[in-house]
Design goal:
Blueprint lengths: L7 E4 L2 E10 L4 H4 L5 H10 L11 E10 L6 E4 L20 H7 L7 E5 L5 H4 L15 E5 H6 L5 H12 L3 E4 L3 E4 L2 E5 L8 E5 L7 E3 L8 H4 L11 H18 L2 E3 L7 E2 L5
Parallel strand pairs: 4-5, 5-6, 6-7, 11-12
Antiparallel strand pairs: 1-2, 2-3, 3-4, 8-9, 9-10, 10-11, 12-13
């Protein structure tokens, strides 16, 4: 299923929610300086919607909702760019549309029992809380790798917008390493983009599994060649190892990739 006019698409139990679309603050070739001409040609074929005018990079900002296998609620993966006054305002296309998209998808915020934050960048955490410090998802536990909060600068606006208020309400759960969240939903450490970055594997017995990548990859040029580094990765060598390992595993198990920033929500992993 491709995205409908409301910005949603679905594969199995996973619903893609298009919070926003905009232009990156730097040209694509500056963001991926090591990419070759052949990589750019392959990327344009894989994700033509990302090709903006004069070398601009057009990208989506997407969250994913996973229907609980037990039918008792929802897991939200990432929290988008957030409201106009949120930490993403300096460069993200705020305000995002996530609250309206959840309504369109028939998902009540009170039924979201878990919010998985792949990492603590402002374009993935904006709808975690509001300007008053109140959690947007009142019944949810927010799950993040402890390595991610430990590495976050206390002066980063995400600290005061997300970490402090969620710790104050007792809703921030800091985990270490691989974590079985629910039957069929596993959190996988994929560091490099940030120290505590994680991705999410959603298993569909009898169907295709889905790997929600977060920022394991951020552009189709990294599908064309997973060795291509992104200029804003904290540790490019570690990010490359995480990307190559998980993309190879996804290909081996026939899993789809659910992407945060490509202009297609679900894509095939590259074949080895």
């Amino acid at each position: 299923m491709s995205p409908d006019s409301g910005g949603t698409a679905r594969r199995g139990s996973v619903t893609a929610l298009l919070d926003a679309t905009g232009m990156f603050f730097a040209p694509a070739r500056e963001a991926f300086p090591g990419a070759r001409a052949a990589d750019w040609a392959a990327a344009a074929a894989l994700d033509p919607g990302a090709v903006g005018p004069d070398g601009a990079w057009r990208l989506d900002f997407r969250c994913f909702a996973v229907a609980d296998p037990g039918g008792t609620g929802w897991i939200l993966i990432d929290a988008g760019v957030g409201p106009a006054e949120g930490p993403g305002a300096p460069w993200c296309p705020v305000p995002g549309r996530l609250p309206d998209l959840l309504t369109e998808a028939g998902i009540d915020r009170a039924d979201v029992h878990t919010v998985v934050l792949t990492h603590l960048h402002e374009d993935h955490t904006g709808w975690s809380a509001d300007a008053a410090g109140q959690p947007v998802f009142p019944q949810a536990r927010y799950v993040v790798q402890g390595a991610e909060t430990a590495a976050l600068d206390r002066g980063d606006p995400v600290w005061s917008w997300v970490v402090e208020p969620l710790r104050a309400t007792g809703q921030l759960y800091e985990i270490e390493g691989t974590h079985r969240l629910r039957p069929g939903v596993t959190l996988l450490p994929t560091p490099g983009h940030t120290p505590g970055h994680q991705s999410v594997l959603v298993e569909h017995p009898g169907g295709r599994d889905v790997l929600v990548t977060g920022d394991l990859l951020v552009h189709a040029v990294q599908l064309a060649d997973p060795a291509v580094a992104y200029a804003h990765e904290r540790d490019p060598a570690v990010a490359r190892a995480s990307r190559e390992q998980q993309l190879a595993r996804a290909a081996e198990r026939g899993a789809l990739l659910a992407t945060a920033h490509l202009t297609r929500p679900f894509v095939e992993p590259p074949t080895p």
